[in-house]
Task: structure prediction
Amino acid sequence: MPHRFRIIPLISVVGLTLSLMSCASIVDGQKGEEVEASSSAAQSGAAQQGSTSGQKLAASLSEWIEQRESQGNIAESQKTILDKAKSTGEISTSDYEKAWSDYRQCMIDKGYKEIKLIKYPSGLYVEAGHKQGTTIQESRYSDDSTECGDEYVADVQDVYGIIVGNPNLYADQAQAVVDCLHRDSLVPKDYTVSRFNKEFSGTDGNTSFDMQNLQVRSCLVSNGYNVGYATDDTEKLW
Result:
């Protein structure tokens, strides 16, 4: 099963930022700001298991994209972009931004006031959080964002996240994050996956790295984790 992101963004509620599933609440040790951190429940089975150090999603990016395409149900506009990536090993900035632009327009056409994107240093985009609406509003938003995401950007987002956040194609989410942190010199060379798992699942906020650093958050988000703060930018949907 291919590695999979979800387009659904964080939802800001009473100063907290809530994310997908399997949440672990973290308190920032310096500012005392409570945040929610999560690992996407939509990751692949291999990524969820992650018990074998060094296990790979595929032998190459091209092979991994082939696996995705073999599952079917990829919109033609996204498949064109993925086919390019199989031969070039990258997704161009123009193709990536066009995919997100099409998603945004799709949502605007469905009646939402604005769709705001947050850009990380790696070039990765994520949709900003929003204040929680009514049950009906949230249900409609979930359906609409999934529909627009599947049509225009979800698969492109998955592959772009792998390219910038997990070029070694590690199946274990945590190993992919730690590899990213090492590549960007955000943690000491002796920082381990087990240490990351212990720190990230803790509740005292005693991490060895700055969770609010945008490069750190880019490593997390590109590998299926979401970390939100009350100070993050938000969009007005209704």
About this structure: Residues 84 and 91 are 7 Å apart (CA to CA). The two ends are 36 Å apart (CA to CA). Residues 135-152 form the longest helix (18 residues).
